Amino acid sequence: MTDRVIQIIGGGMAGSEAAWQAAEAGARVVLHEMRPAVGTFAHRTGHLAEMVCSNSFRSDDDEQNAVGLLHWEMRAAGSLIMAMADAHRLPAGGALAVDRDPFAESVTARLRAHPNIEIRAGEITGLPDTGPAIIATGPLTSGALAQAIAAETGQDALAFFDAIAPIVYAESIDMSVAWEQSRYDKGETLEEQRAYINCPMTRDEYETFIDALIAADKAEFHEGETAQYFDGCLPIEVMAERGRETLRHGPMKPVGLTNPHNPTVKPWAVVQLRRDNALGTLYNIVGFQTKMKYGAQTAVFKMIPGLQDASFARLGGIHRNTFINSPTLLDGQMRLRSKPHIRFAGQITGVEGYVESAAMGLLAGRLAAAEVLGHSLPPVPQETAMGALVHHITGGAEAKTFQPMNVNFGLFPPVEGFRAGRRGRVDRYKAYTDRAKAAWTAWLAPQRADAA
């Protein structure tokens, strides 16, 4: 085995998956993580792969949903993140929700136990002079390293503000008002079909709530800070400011739900809470990321029917997320063009979401290991979810308007012969996923043969 060691900076989703994939391929890895010695606004522990916002990996439907397809591809590639997510799965209808603390503890334990992986604590403040290396420091890259990246790339890092949703103690939810039900009763088991707690609102209650959101005290940005929000994670009060009906057609939509306490009356709006731990003692308010000040959060969220006596395990917050202009800076192998011994992976590349971050770590780990071990990997087929994402960040996106992106079928090459629009999407999405699975399986096959 080669003596060249892959240095991976950052132990989040992307860094953890990159380390696992490279080590499993036979490469030696040193994984650097600054926590707990150097903390961040959002993290609570020193565990690797800590989930800091939602506990959801989103849809697990690998036939009709692009992120579900990404789950499938990662599982097929032996993903550690997906294996531990499956091991600590919580009921969430058709979604994959995770018991966050046991998940992170298990990822950490598996990485520490791997004979090819060494974990070193401490902050890395500059780019490695020699390689191979993977930068996977995520959206909360430390200031010193962010400055080093900016100095090397010759341009300022792009940024947006990401908001964290509050978590409520289950025992403080009034179940004489709220009820358990997944939208459209999704899920194969009764537990999954009742994975969400729903709080109904009348029209008057909704209008009053919107007024309070708009009027609430908000956190101020520091002087000189400018950024754009990522549309997939907008603070709830920003959505309210965009139009009074926005929330009712977004996270508070009342469709697919029937209130058993008053089954003949359709709620005007519904607030959903999703289970956040295996014990069922904690629930996060779905889609309620916020930049309201803490006192305002408590007052406004207690206006929600069923949450009038709510106790909060964690209130929402806001933090700056940093990402690079990947289309101009990275090549198709995820390498920094000016320093090709360095790869970037995860949210810092401009993908959005836990799964997408881990997926880019998976690719970076495999690509770096192949390079170290003297192999060559063909380009990832763009027809796959992996390929669609990596193509988007390394050249498919318009650099001038580059923004963080979740995986979606709009990134895939079109499938010919299928009806466009909503009516044809079931067959069209199935064609996308069938094509992707075949292409991904074919891409993995030679690597499995080499490993054997």
What is the secondary structure topology, with strand pairs?
Layout: E1 5-9, H1 13-25, E2 28-33, E3 56-59, H2 66-76, H3 80-87, E4 89-90, E5 95-98, H4 100-113, E6 117-121, E7 133-135, H5 143-153, E8 158-164, E9 167-169, E10 179-180, H6 190-193, E11 196-201, H7 203-215, H8 236-241, E12 269-275, E13 282-285, H9 294-301, E14 312-314, E15 317-323, H10 326-329, E16 335-336, E17 339-344, H11 354-372, H12 385-396, H13 425-451
Parallel strand pairs: 1-2, 1-7, 2-6, 7-17
Antiparallel strand pairs: 3-5, 4-5, 8-15, 9-13, 9-14, 10-11, 11-12, 12-13, 16-17
Helix pairs in contact: 1-11, 2-11, 2-13, 3-4
Shape: globular
Spatial gap, N to C terminus: 15 Å
Which architecture of the largest domain does the CATH hierarchy give at level 2? 3-Layer(bba) Sandwich
Uncertain spans:
none
Q: Give the tally of structural domains.
A: 2
- Count of helices? 13
Q: Which class of secondary structure composition applies to the elements?
A: alpha+beta
CATH superfamily of the largest domain: FAD/NAD(P)-binding domain
The biggest beta sheet reads:
6 strands, mixed
Q: What's the alpha carbon Rg, rounded to whole Å?
A: 22 Å
Q: What is the beta-strand fraction?
A: 15-25%
Order of helices and strands: EHEEHHEEHEEHEEEHEHHEEHEEHEEHHH
**Helicity level, as a percent range?**
25-40%
Going across the biggest sheet, name each strand in turn: 6-2-1-7-17-16
Function: Catalyzes the folate-dependent formation of 5-methyl-uridine at position 54 (M-5-U54) in all tRNAs.
Keywords: Cytoplasm, FAD, Flavoprotein, Methyltransferase, NAD, NADP, Transferase, tRNA processing
GO molecular function: flavin adenine dinucleotide binding; tRNA (uracil(54)-C5)-methyltransferase activity, 5,10-methylenetetrahydrofolate-dependent
Cofactor: FAD
